[in-house]
Amino acid sequence: MMKREIQNEIQEKLKEIEEKEQVAILYAVESGSRAWGIASPDSDYDVRFIYVRKPDEYLRLDPVKDVIEWQLDEVLDINGWDLKKALVQFQRGNATLFEWANSPIVYKSSAAWECIYETAKLYFSKKAAIYHYYGTANKTFLQDLQEEKVKYKKYFYALRPLLAAKYIREHGIPAPVLFDDLMKQELPRELSREIARLLTVKRNSDEAERRLQNPTVQEYIARELERQKAIADQMPDDRNYDWRELNRIFFNLLQEEKREIVCTGWNMTTETSEPW
User: Fold this and answer.
1) Of 18, 39, 196, 235, which sits most exposed with the smallest number of CB within 10 A?
2) What whole-number distance in Å separates Cα of residue 121 and Cα of residue 29?
3) How far apart are CA 238 and CA 173, in angstroms?
4) What is the pLDDT of residues 165-224, one digit of tens each?
């Protein structure tokens, strides 16, 4: 299927989800390798979105599902989080959610989402993010990069989180999503050359193809995992435990009549269509 057809299909499916699930999608993006700019020819599309339900759905005693999953086929996967779930995860410093918020491929956005994310930035936690990226890289390294021949895509599932953690440690803000932007950081010259070579191979190979380990990259990952774990262990807890700003955003958005978000110092009305 051609890229242009996929883009149209994604837009159609997002509208279909709004109608069938009776929700309003505030924000929808691409995640994973395509958002990172390192997709292989057969990489799938991973669409992630944030939605809000009708206000009275949040007042029910019986639980309402907070995730919508539409696995269409091996090419297109669409998954969404309820706004309340997203706000709770922002307070916890969920690094994956901050990645979605900074994806370079946006399928849908709204003024409401822009205001939500401005508030969410107050809850970014360097320690939580570095621990997240360490855990992701460590799991990939132990599970997928120990055999003589490995899938090169797995190198990037370890390298990208390690480079993101390095950026966060040095700059104190969410890391760029694009892998090429993360590679602008200062790295050993030989390592940069080897990563560039691996990236060329990955972009032109099938996802399942296996090749011999790259010793330079392998050693860097092992060293960096040990170093970043030690650094994160020593970092102070920097989570923001004050819920007031997130609660204010949530309550304002659920006002039935105005659908108005009130940000610090300014008002913003949502641009999202409302199917209810």
Assistant:
1) 196
2) 18
3) 12
4) 999 999 999 999 999 999 999 999 999 999 999 999 888 888 788 999 999 999 999 999
> Residue with structure tokens 């970014």?
124
| CA 227 – CA 134 distance, rounded (Å) | 10
Cα–Cα–Cα angle for 13, 80, 58, rounded to 5 degrees: 115
Q: Do residues 30 and 108 lie in contact, with contact meaning Cβ atoms separated by under 8 Å?
A: no
119 contacts 246 by C-beta, under 8 angstroms = yes
275: pLDDT strictly greater than 70: no
Contact indicator for 58, 41 with CB cutoff of 8 Å:
no
Residues 118 and 264: their CA atoms lie apart, in Å, by: 9
Q: How far apart are the first and last CA of the chain?
A: 33
Cα 22–Cα 95–Cα 179 angle in degrees, nearest 5? 105
pLDDT per residue as tens digits for the range 126-154: 999 999 999 999 999 999 999 999 999 99
| Amino acid residing at 146 | Q
Q: How far out from the chain centre does Cα 251 lie?
A: 25
Cβ 42 vs Cβ 206: under 8 Å: yes
> What Å distances lie between residue 8 and 33, 147, 186, 214, CA to CA?
20, 40, 39, 39
Q: Is the pLDDT of residue 3 over 70?
A: no
Identity at 54, one-letter amino acid code: K
Q: How far apart are CA 235 and CA 252, in angstroms?
A: 35
Instruction: State how far the Cα of 224 lies from the Cα of 217, in Å rounded to an integer.
Output: 10
